[in-house]
Every structure is written in structure tokens, then in C-alpha cells.
Amino acid sequence: MKKRTRDIVLGALLSALAFISMYFIQIPIFPSAPYLQFDPSEVFSLFAAYFISPTMGVLVSLVKIILFYLTKQESGIIGSIMNFLAVAPFVFFSSLLYKKIKNIGFLLSFSLSLIFGILVRIIFMIPANLLFVPIYSGLTIKQTWVYIYTINIPFNIINSLINIFLFILLTLALSKIPEVKKEFIDVKNPGR
Length: 192
Hints:
Blueprint: H1 3-24, E1 27-28, E2 37-38, H2 42-51, H3 54-71, H4 76-101, H5 106-137, H6 141-174, H7 178-183
Antiparallel strand pairs: 1-2
Helix pairs in contact: 1-2, 1-3, 2-3, 2-4, 2-6, 3-4, 4-5, 5-6
């Protein structure tokens, strides 16, 4: 199978897995903000971004959120937009950095790039929250800043760390399969 065709098929599979995991697994992290929920779908977006391309990671995130919005519609259009604005920069920029530094070793390059991704996510979500939270919840700008620092930033850090942990576990497990190791993941030689 040609690489381009393989990547498209794998991207579609990862999009389906991301959608299914988001559809069935929603865990609220903060009782005061039950609409902020952990779901493991970012693992599949990260896999697409790191092992296919950063753009494919964004596309997996987009397809997942469109399918979720069309079927469940729990958080409405604003919640769907906010989810995409949180995940897309996280997976895109962290995987871009990984591709630049992957020669320094698997765990170190993974860790640095994923921490960078968390910082990018937080930076992107501050203006997004300032724009959408007052519309969605009716909070004032001052109240929105309090919400950002006390709820949103901690949520994004916790959510990202859980997904990163699951992503690293999945990557290490898949790297033991010879066909996957040959095509995508060689933890002993990540720079190839």
C-alpha cells in the first residue's frame, strides 16, 4: 500500500477511534464545571500527529469533534469549538517540536514536546475562554479571568497529563509489534 493511502486509511481509523472514545468515555474533573470532561480521544489525535503528520493530528481532532457534535451535541457548538481549539494546537505544535528534536532520544523528546504542547494549549485557551465563556455562561470578563486561572488552566493541565500518560503507554506497547515498529515507532531509534 502506498504511504499516502496508508496514512489516509490510518487517519480515518484514528478518527473513528477518537470519536468512539469521546462518545463513550466522558469523566468530569471539576464538580464546579461539570461540562469540562476528560475523554481519551486526544490519544488518537496525538498518535496521528506524531506518527503520520501534525496536520493529520489536527484532522483527526476535527473529524472527531464534528462527529461528536452531530451525534451527541451535549456541549453545543461553543463546546465543540472550544474542544477543537484546545486539542488542535496541542497536538500540532507538540508534534512539530517532536519532529525537530526526536534525535535526542525517545522519552526525552516525547516529554519535552508534550510539555511544550501543554503550554501551547494553555496559551491558546486563554483568549478562547475570554471570547466564548462570557457568551456561553454570562460571566463578566473579571469573573472569566478567575475561571481561567482557577478552573480552566488546571483542567487543561490535568486533562493533557492523563492523555499524555495514555499516549506514552500506547506508544510503548505498540512499539513491541514488529510491523508497527518498522513503519511508525522505533523507540530505540526515533530519529530515523
